[in-house]
Automatic annotation (TrEMBL):
Pfam families: HMA. Keywords: Cadmium, Lipoprotein, Membrane, Metal-binding, Methylation, Prenylation. Residues 28-91 form the HMA domain. Belongs to the HIPP family. One of its GO terms (molecular function) is metal ion binding. This is HMA domain-containing protein. GO terms for cellular component: membrane. One of its GO terms (biological process) is response to stress.
Length: 152
């Protein structure tokens, strides 16, 4: 009897696992959305819509920067869709990075007049190329380089 029960439990457990669909686990992440917020009503509508989402732990709305920050186990596309469903059709994922994270902040694709202060737009032109000529020239006159120019 004990062997039959063990075998029955073993087969049913393995059979059940193979039939059951495994859900993907969402990771904890922070999603930033750029959306134009004009008044308290807009702010309240967006905050209520996003905070009602399953998995949203915290919602911050910064009206001055036109930014909505959502933390939790959420999908960025679903958060964007939820914000757009409130009537804000021009909402987009946050396109800016801090000014200090970009090698060339005044490159053609990076500089944006509408960006909040201290931020520039993400772009490939503004990123430094690894092993580029700028890095090589800077290392020639560096204090850490023992073969640097002796005039300095």
């Amino acid at each position: 009897m004990g062997a039959l029960n063990f075998l029955s439990d073993y087969l049913s457990d393995h059979f059940y696992v193979s039939i059951r669909k495994r859900k993907k686990r969402k990771i904890m992440q922070t999603v930033n959305i750029k959306v134009k917020i004009d008044c308290d009503g807009c702010e309240r509508k967006i905050k209520n819509a996003v905070s009602s989402m399953k998995g949203a732990k915290s919602v911050e709305v910064n009206r001055k920067m036109h930014k909505v920050t959502v933390s939790g186990y959420v999908d960025p596309k679903k958060v964007l869709k939820k914000v757009q469903s409130t009537g804000k059709k021009k909402a987009e994922l946050w396109p800016y990075v801090p000014y200090t994270m970009v090698a060339y902040p005044y490159a053609a694709g990076a500089y944006d007049k509408r960006a909040p202060s201290g931020f520039v737009r993400k772009s490939e032109q503004a990123q430094a190329q690894p092993g580029g000529t700028d890095d090589k020239l800077m290392s020639l006159f560096s204090d850490e380089n023992p073969n640097a120019c002796t005039i300095m």
